[in-house]
Every structure is written in C-alpha cells, then in structure tokens.
Specification:
The chain contains 9 helices and 9 strands.
C-alpha cells in the first residue's frame, strides 16, 4: 500500500502487532498523498459533489495539485468520466497505472469478500483495457487521463469553458494569487460548472499553533515566506481566512452551494492569538478565527 510503519512490524496474525499495523495503515493511509487509500478518500469526497449537484456526469474533470499519484483520476475514469485532467506546477512525473490497477483489484477482492457477511456479495471489480500512451497520457477503456505538469491554476492555458468540474484538496491556501486562481477556474468552467475545494487555514509551520502566523504584518510575513520557501516555493501560505475565500468566489461570479467549517481551533488558541494579531486580522470575529479548515462548493453563475 506504499506506506511504511515505523512503529510496527507485520507479524503472525496471533501477534497483536499485526492488527495494530493494519489499523495504523487505515488511519494514516487516508492522509498519505501517495497511498491508494488517500486516492479513494479524495475520490469519494469530490465525486459526491458531482452526484449531488450536477444534472448529468460532466465529460471533463480537472484536479488541481494531485500530489504524487493520479489514482483519483483512475477512479474518475472508472466511474464514467471521459476526460480526467490534472495539473500542478511540478515537472512531469511518472505514474504506474498498471501497479495502481493491480492494487485496486486486490483491495476490491478483500472488500468484496467481507460483503458476504451480509449475504450480499458485490460483483468483481471490472477494469477495462488500459494503457500508458507515448505522449504521457493514459487510456482506461474509452476514457482519457491527462496530467499537465508545470502549470498553475493562476494560468492553466486551458480553453474557456472546457471543464465541467474542477476541484482541489489543500491547495488554495498555498497559492500566491488566490483571486486570480478563482477567476481562472470561472473562465475554464462550463456554464453551470461546479468547483469544490478543501482548504487548510492553519499555519503549516507548526500545526499545534494554527493561528501563529496571524501575528505578523504583511511585510514581515513576506520576509518569512521568502526564507521558508527558498527550497520549495509550493510551501507558500497566503493566510486568507474562510470568509475571504467565500467573498472571492462570489466576486468572481460563483454561487456558493456549500460552506462547511470542518476543523476548529480551541477557544484558548483563539484567545491567545487575538492578544497579538497583526493589523488587519483583528477585524475577524472569534468564530472566523476559530475555523482552521473548510470545504467550499460553488457553481458558475
């Protein structure tokens, strides 16, 4: 499953470490961007939006910042998407489609075997013919997967109204021009197209101090970021709060369909932060400061 466990070794089933290691894999796998469990969790999170709000399955999806795996795009193709696109600013990477498919089939076999407990076995996972093409794209049946490296959401280079559904997970907090990103999403989305984003609003330098970065002025923060991002520009944090993102989506021409704050700082953390907020951040309410991650779904008006 592509995950190493430092605290456990797989032993015989009678050894408690066997179950402990498996439990750790399930707990942590959903947070490891190069694990099949993470791919499945991302697929489940965002495919729900399509089924909840789209009148029909979009022909083209665009995943912003897929990380080290294109597994979510494989699952989108298997679910009926004709063109599963993705992009990120990194150089082109290889994706082992065959290994992913084999792992998915093994996982499906285990899951299906458990269905018999309820006397309702699931059908075997059907995988159509698939291949890696010479141009770096991937074919799964009649569907096409294509990853665009060295591209950003600020300027995708994609045709206007060419995408039906655009989504990202823990990306928008890292972009340097979030409003331009949202405007570009609006441009490339088809009429009534959907977009969904999980946004992490914490100070990524130390998650135990999620609001610590709000104590710096803009100029101070720029200096800090210049040093922090010297080796990896993608580590940049823009410090916007949830209400800022909502306002940007609306100003760009989107209608908000869902807004879900899904993690919060403690009252003590907010109180400590408010005592030393930089100019500009004091305008946020306690509830706005408390929100440390959110899920936004919007539709192009």
């Amino acid at each position: 499953m592509f995950i190493k466990f430092r605290n456990h070794t797989i032993a015989l089933y009678k050894d408690g470490n066997y179950n402990s290691a498996f439990s750790e894999m399930l707990d942590n796998g959903g947070n490891q961007s190069q694990s099949i469990l993470y791919d499945i969790s991302i697929f489940n999170k965002f495919s729900r939006i399509v089924h909840s709000y789209a009148k029909s399955l979009p022909e083209t999806t665009l995943h912003i910042g897929p990380g080290g795996s294109l597994g979510c795009e494989v699952l989108l193709c298997l679910s009926g998407i004709k063109k599963a696109w993705s992009l990120d600013p990194c150089a082109s990477r290889t994706f082992d489609l065959q290994t992913f498919i084999l792992t998915l089939q093994k996982l499906s076999a285990v899951t299906n075997s458990l269905q018999t407990i309820h006397q309702c076995p699931a059908p075997p996972l059907s995988i159509p013919e698939h291949s890696t093409e010479a141009d770096g794209s991937y074919r799964i049946g009649t569907s096409l997967m294509q990853h665009f490296p060295n591209k950003t959401l600020e300027n995708t280079g994609l045709q206007t109204e060419s995408v039906g559904f655009l989504f990202s997970n823990a990306v928008l907090e890292h972009v340097r021009d979030p409003l331009q990103c949202i405007r570009e999403a609006h441009r490339i989305l088809a009429k009534k197209g959907l977009t969904a984003h999980q946004i992490d609003l914490r100070d990524h330098r130390d998650f135990s101090k999620p609001l610590h970065f709000l104590r710096y002025s803009d100029s101070q923060w720029q200096t800090i970021m210049n040093n922090y991002c010297a080796r990896d520009p993608l580590r940049y944090m823009n410090r916007l709060r949830a209400r800022d993102f909502l306002a940007m989506f609306e100003s760009a021409g989107f209608r908000i369909l869902e807004f879900t704050p899904n993690s919060s700082a403690s009252d003590q953390t907010v109180s400590d932060a408010r005592a030393c907020l930089a100019t500009g951040f004091e305008r946020y309410s306690t509830d706005e400061l408390k929100t440390t991650s959110c899920f936004i779904v919007a539709q192009k008006s």
